[in-house]
Amino acid sequence: MKCKCGRRAVYFRRYEGALLCRECFIRSIESKVKRTIRKHGMVRKGDTIALAMSGGKDSTAAAYITHKIFGGWRDVELLAISIDEGVEPYRTDSIKRAKAFAKELGIPHHVFSFREEFKKTTDQISRKIQDSDSATNVLCTYCGVARRYLLNKKARELGATRLCMGHNLDDEAQAAMLNYIRGDLARAGRMEAVTSWSTQKRQGGLFISRIKPLREIPERESALYAYLKGFDILESHCPYAGGIRFEVRDFINRLEFKHPGTKFNILGTFDKLNPCIKRVARNGESRIMKCRICGEPSSREVCKTCELWRAP
Ligand code: SF4
Ligand code: ZN
Q1: Number of domains in the chain
Q2: Were both Cys, which of 57, 98, 131, 273 would link to 226 (CB 3.0–4.6 Å)?
Q3: Ion ligand 2: protein residues whose beta carbon lies under 5 Å
Q4: From ligand 2's centre to the CA of 289, what distance in Å?
Q5: Domain that holds residue 65
Q6: Neighbouring C-beta atoms of residue 249, cutoff 10 Å
Q7: pTM as predicted
């Protein structure tokens, strides 16, 4: 089985019907990511990009390719942030790898923890709610809300203008379906590839624009890329991972297997619908104000993170 260049193929890309060798595969991933960044205007001159690094395959690949593209630009700065949610020993291991990788790239690396910020960890919350029926969904809500909060807050405090996330095509397709299933139009409207200037202005510059360079790379290709590049990544998953997102993931994977290209179609449709979803969501959107407790942006008097993590 040969790649079109004549070398031995290592991968069959079903949705394109193409066999690819190691070199052509790596090149295709990097140029796809470059195209995604350019197509959506994810980075401008003068940006400081905070790379969210968890030590897993996706954020490592996103950091590596973003650094490869912009590392040499004089007018773009890069830094790395990791969030320690307090899931032991999983997170300590993954942050060790993120730290080593940031060092290899030669960029400053900052670690912020739930313990330091909220005086509690995800492990401690898990012990409190383990009897509930939907413990995983509840725990991931606690953890996810606080991680997004801390990433945004710390990136802003460090002077970043862009927050680079490792979300791949599978993550985005799952998020689109989940928002649809939950009827969460506000969040669906925020799924755009990069936050528009008008939205940023309306939010008073309090939310750092998130960019997702891997949003058009399927998960298995991101994993293969990390493997072929020999990145030292943590392959285990968070012990609490599960819940409805996994049901949606399995459902989409079954569809993709039978109908290659399904994941691209889900995301492509959502991208096309995004302006309409935003218009509808904005009708019911409340003004962004500052949380009474922490001063971070919130649509309510007390932000969700303070409600969950700082409530007495
Ligand atoms: Fe947090 Fe859930 Fe992710 Fe684990 S799987 S890190 S608990 S959001
Ligand atoms: Zn708050």
Answers
A1: 1
A2: 57
A3: 291, 293-294, 303, 306
A4: 11
A5: 35-309
A6: 17
A7: 0.93
